[in-house]
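Annex B. Sample input.
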Amino acid sequence: MWLDPDRFRLHDVIDFPLVWTGAPVRDEVNGRRWQVEMDALVAQGSPFVILHRVSGPEPHPARKARTAWLKHNKPALARLCLALVAIEPDPIRRLLLERRAAIANQSYGVKAAVVASVEEGEDLAWEILFCAPSREGAFGIFPAE
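Annex B, continued. Sample output.
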């Protein structure tokens, strides 16, 4: 299924299977928009990696709604979203995000990583996409060791 970039506001799907995000989910309207866009990403059926430009704290109601969606859609998301790569240039904030990423790995079944730059994030995303085990449609052509 083709993703129409014009139908996405919070996710940039132009470079799919790299999906860029970073637009803050600040209110209920954006929270619903985020859910609709995530539903579309999962429904399209092909593996992808989300690259996230960290943009500050998320309000509690938005985080609560996002967490509920993630828990409800865990199996499908874990099958198709091969990783979430957060980009945080600040080393102290990056360290804090790395600790939260470890929790996300266990909670949502999606690998999470934190890197310092866009270039590092893209390199990691392509490595994950092309070196992932060939399972259920993953792009991987090299078996995982």
